Amino acid sequence: MDNNTCLPPNLIYKLLLHFAVDADKLFLQHNIDLQALNAGEQRIDCQKIRAIWDEAEQLIDEPGFALQAGEFWHPSFMNALGYAWLASSSLYTALSRLQRFSKIISHSFRIELIENEQELVVRFGDEMFNQKRPIVEALISILLAMCRANYGHQLIPHRVMFAFETPDCVEQYQQYFQSSLSFNQNCHAIVFSMDVVKQPLAGGNPNFIAFYEQELVKYLSKMDNANLVDHLKRLIVEQLPSGRVTLAGIAGDMAMSSRQLQRKLNHHQVNFKEILDEIRLNLSYQYLKNPSLSLIEIAFLLGFSEVSSFSRAFKRAKGVSPSDYRQQPS
Description:
Elements: H1 9-18, H2 23-29, H3 34-38, H4 46-59, H5 80-86, H6 91-100, H7 102-105, E1 111-115, E2 119-124, H8 133-151, E3 159-161, H9 170-177, E4 180-182, E5 189-193, H10 194-197, H11 206-239, H12 247-253, H13 258-267, H14 272-288, H15 295-301, H16 307-318, H17 322-327
Parallel strand pairs: 3-4
Antiparallel strand pairs: 1-2, 2-5, 3-5
Helix pairs in contact: 5-6, 5-11, 12-13, 15-16
């Protein structure tokens, strides 16, 4: 999971226009095609969204501007999950569905539902703790806007909690949330009365929900298959220097058995050893170009216990030893 929490790019686009920022130019600079995005043909890297958001902070000279993000939320920004949200029988089921399928929005977006007889606490994941204030403002305002779209604009949370210090524009917070606010907390969260979240909603539609749930499960399955190899490669790269990269260990980190992981890899017509060898070879090219790294250090970085093991593996793949390869003109 990365460290950049994705906001819907379509929503950011509308927010930028609202504050008279040239959104088309900004999106073009970051190679984001909104038409392809709207057609479902493009999934945006969170780092690009974060870069656009950082620029927006510089261009919009208005404290608390991100609190207005919720005004521009639309269910289409979340595809089937957005419409399933509107068709939910209660805010409780809507929030539970959001928690279950949050990965569809972003691998960096996560909520936890903590309940007792009186309240439901919607706690944002720990990755939000160190996020910049405007991102937190935007996400919590969007969540409240979603809840109000279902329940009605009269919905008022019991309280809203923020991990950062009290901002200078606290009046804007009070105006938007109309609720008890607390700052310098150990998390970001929004709290609702249990009676409110369990109240049946007029827009609840079990037939629509059955359809959208099927679409969500299909979409999540496609995402999992597409992301499996990338996730596996990231884990291998992270763990190579430990010298303990094994199928069983990586599978455990991915919350599955070795057999399950290999079966999933078979669908991609690859196996664990092929991926491990490919990563080692690609990294070895980079490391050998760095004259400050000795062959012993390179072998260690690639997870080999001995230089001889590294040399044999490299020569088997390239036909030359690492030392000879290093002497070749680049």
